[in-house]
Amino acid sequence: MTNIFRLGLVGAILAVALLASSCGGGGTRLDGVAATIYDGPCVDANGFSVTVYSGRSENLIKPVLDAFACESGTSVRVRWASSTDLALLIAEEGDRTEADVFISRSPGPVGFLESKGLLNSMDFNVLDLVAPEHRGANGTWIGFSGRKRVLVHNLDSVPAAELPSSVFDLTEPQWRGRVAIPATNGSFVDWFTVFRDQYGNDAATQWLSDMVDNDARYYPNNVAIVEAAARGEVDMGLVNHYYNYRLAADAEAAGTPHQAANHDLSNEDIGALLIITAATMTSNVNDRVASQNLISYLLSPSAQRYFTTNTYEYPLAGGVESNPALPPLAALSIGSVDFDALGGGFETTEEIIQSSGILSQ
Predict the structure, then answer these.
(1) Alpha carbon distances (Å) from 339 to 16, 90, 132, 141, 194
(2) Which of 17, 224, 186 is nearest to 85 (CA)?
(3) Helices (runs of H) and strands (runs of E) counted in the chain
(4) 119 dihedral zone (left: phi>0; alpha: psi -120 to 50; beta)
(5) Distance separating alpha carbons of residues 116 and 35, to the nearest angstrom
(6) Tell me: the pLDDT tens digits for 171-181?
(7) What is the pLDDT of residues 186-217, one digit of tens each?
(8) Element (H, E) at 303
């Protein structure tokens, strides 16, 4: 495993605190964002607890976990880190892991754990909360929100009529030095792993090499690219759709202009892929009922409305409408992508990305 991506697994995990997310009960109430998910009185502790290893960031998931703890009385303990690091940690811990539930930014790290026999199947009453294409074939994971890949661009420097329809167009001369890539970001690693699976290593590696030859610019994450595009520092970049919505909303609240917009590539283009956030139970789960209750809560109407209203993601549970600010979802069908087969593919992806030279661009 490369040093660029893995600067010492133990150090990365030790830097993450194990936190408690619970409510005092006795009629106390939540405040802040969590109160928009559940605004009733917190119930008394029921004696059950769930330990979550979360690869989704604290600011996005903690309000939902707080609401679940308050509404159910179940204590929730959380370890925060990247999905890849947590998957590797669970594999290292094996039957000693404290993790009951694993929340991953995508099914890739989940597939890695499944390939090692470290996951538990869920009951059908949980799996049936989403369409079959949004859950694992073996019932070991379920998706609860979707993030679409898009091309964010500066409104002044790139006329809409000139925007490309495919990521393969970005290697052409007219886009030299104008495209940003978040090459070490987890969402890009997920996307490129699917790219490899769909087109093969040779084609995917050649595309990235051609992007480097075309002077594509490296940024560490999606937010940095959206901010750079809004400033006019870079003309466009490959990101998840919701970052631009959130930064635009922040700019509007502050009364400042935001000069970036999302561009949807062709519906059948790999650049329009819908990547889903996944939840699963480990093979060492201590309480199946409490753990599945938490996973079901991620798909509850109130939690799904939070994901699409507050974080601008696409809800996956049946009967919940997307935020009206989001365009209708017509991305590359996730059903055509065998996420279960990706397994440990992110390790090969990282090796290809590092050797491509994009990190020095």
Answers:
(1) 28, 19, 13, 10, 8
(2) 186
(3) 13, 12
(4) beta
(5) 39
(6) 999 999 999 99
(7) 889 888 988 998 899 999 999 999 999 999 99
(8) helix 301-310
